[in-house]
Amino acid sequence: MEERVDILDDHGKPTGKSCLKSEAHLKGLFHPTVHVWLYTKDGRILIQQRGKHKETHPSLWDVSVAGHVASGENVKTAAIREVEEEVGLAISERDLEPIRTFKAIHKISEDFTDAEFHHVFLCELKEPLNHLTKQDSEVDALDLVPLLQFAEETWGMANTGKYVPHGTPYYKTIVKEIKGRL
């Protein structure tokens, strides 16, 4: 069953309306999502390769965990749920470090526009990579990469086409925030 999402205005404020996720994408309506970046104290960041059958950015590398906030769902509750679903890791609210919210619009096709407010969190990864269980329907692979390599590949001089195009300011914020916690 397809989930419902709450509709937001251009400033990320609830409108009091909700609709099916597919309708929000069809009409380009703003709705909330969560991004959780998992990092290790030794300076590595968990990235996921999106499933090859995903409608948006198939097979590209992306945020550790991302997903839609269901209608009526608290943002932190959605983040905890998505981490459990996508990588099999149980976390709590106190593990989530809110960073900021990014407004993003990606026109995928004539009838598909991702108009989202990404609520971005950091979370320290204390488990080894081989203890994580990827959600096969969403994720093709998981990898831990050094933060410097990630920075170079997302907004430096190499491999920008390897990642979902969230934009340089987004990726710089993630790198800076993680670096500040090491």
TrEMBL record:
Keywords per UniProt: Hydrolase
Cross-referenced Gene3D superfamilies: Nucleoside Triphosphate Pyrophosphohydrolase (3.90.79.10)
CDD domains: NUDIX_Hydrolase (cd04692)
Superkingdom as given in the UniProt entry: Bacteria
Domain Nudix hydrolase: 29-176
Keyword presence, Hydrolase: yes
Membrane-crossing segments per the record: none
Record flagged with keyword Hydrolase: yes
Cited InterPro entries: NUDIX_hydrolase-like_dom_sf (IPR015797), NUDIX_hydrolase_CS (IPR020084), NUDIX_hydrolase_dom (IPR000086)
PROSITE patterns: NUDIX, NUDIX_BOX
PANTHER family according to UniProt: ISOPENTENYL-DIPHOSPHATE DELTA-ISOMERASE, NUDIX HYDROLASE DOMAIN-CONTAINING PROTEIN
Protein name: NUDIX domain-containing protein
Species, as recorded: Flagellimonas marina
